[in-house]
Amino acid sequence: MKNILFLLLAISIVSCKKSEKKEEATKPKVKLYQLVGGSILVKKLEVFSQDTAYTGKTKQFADAYYVISHPKGNLMWDAGLPEQLVMPEPYNEPSGVYAIRRPDSLVNQLKSIGFKIGDFKYFAMSHSHFDHTGHANLMKDATWIVQENEYNSVAGDSAKVKNPAVAALKNVQKIKGDFDVFGDGTVVIKYTPGHTIGHQALYVEVAGLEKPVLLTGDLYHFEENRANKGVPSFNYDVKQTIESMDSFEAFAKEKNAEVIIQHSPVAFEKLEKLLKK
């Protein structure tokens, strides 16, 4: 009897291992590219807190956007700063909070990795703030995947003020909640409202990496924000932001994901190293 049980257990283990190998072999090869959408010097860091914790402090932010290449089509995630900011010196915007510039155009940056604007089937943004919508209108031939409530707030008929940064985007796919972009679990938009009404993050299973990548959007802006659950003063909803942080962290743990804070220069360098392996 013991021999039979041992044999059944051995067969079960072998079967599981074969199944895992088959699943790995059939997984689509997804590539991820990280590009520079701008440089942001935050001169008044206190706006990134609900209190006076950062009063008098400054911080350098990255502003990345991403290309995800999938056998079923390409997705661009986020759009950096406006291309008018491609200039030698940073622009000090009127509020006095930011000094901003963009290093290069979308066309030039895509060319550096072998892509053209017309190569994209999908376009999505974490949210609709100015540092994520910079070249959005250039993606007019792609399908814009956006949370329905975010769309309504910036481009819908009910929007009090329509955002001109997305005015050219007419091919729209409105979603509600999490969305599996290619239907195979490799690229999933995660609904994380709070920073804006329809803020979202992105999960990507990148071929060749030990861990999947989880892009935060602006759920967090820097490492201390994540550690302390810091919420910027200008967030749409504080309570909702905290709830999204909790659900995001639970998902990150479940997937053993590499969390990349999109505005963090540290995270930018970390992902660059991972992608070059």
Give a short overview.
Pfam families: Lactamase_B. By secondary structure, the chain is an alpha/beta fold. The chain has helices at 2-26, 106-111, 148-154, 223-228, 238-255, 265-276, and strands spanning 31-42, 59-70, 73-77, 91-92, 98-101, 122-124, 143-147, 172-175, 179-180, 187-191, 200-204, 213-215, 258-260.
Main traits of this protein?
RibonucZ/Hydroxyglut_hydro, alpha/beta, 8-stranded mixed sheet, zinc, 277 residues, Metallo-beta-lactamase, Chain A
**What is the number of independent domains?**
1
**CATH class descriptor:** Alpha Beta
**CATH architectural type:** 4-Layer Sandwich
Strand order of the largest sheet: 4-5-1-2-3-6-7-8
> How far apart lie the N and C ends?
49 Å
* SS field, number of helical segments: 6
What is the share of helical residues?
A: 25-40%
Stretches where pLDDT falls below 50 for ≥5 residues? 5-11, 13-23
Shape: globular
Mean pLDDT equals 93
Beta-strand percentage?
15-25%
- Structural class of the secondary structure composition? alpha/beta
Organism: Polaribacter filamentus
Keywords: Hydrolase, Metal-binding, Zinc
GO molecular function: hydrolase activity; metal ion binding
Pfam families: Lactamase_B (PF00753)
Secondary structure blueprint with pairings:
Blueprint: H1 2-26, E1 31-42, E2 59-70, E3 73-77, E4 91-92, E5 98-101, H2 106-111, E6 122-124, E7 143-147, H3 148-154, E8 172-175, E9 179-180, E10 187-191, E11 200-204, E12 213-215, H4 223-228, H5 238-255, E13 258-260, H6 265-276
Parallel strand pairs: 3-6, 6-7, 7-8, 12-13
Antiparallel strand pairs: 1-2, 1-5, 2-3, 4-5, 9-10, 10-11, 11-12
Pfam families: Lactamase_B
Family: Belongs to the metallo-beta-lactamase superfamily.
InterPro entries: MBL_superfamily_lactonases (IPR051013), Metallo-B-lactamas (IPR001279), RibonucZ/Hydroxyglut_hydro (IPR036866)
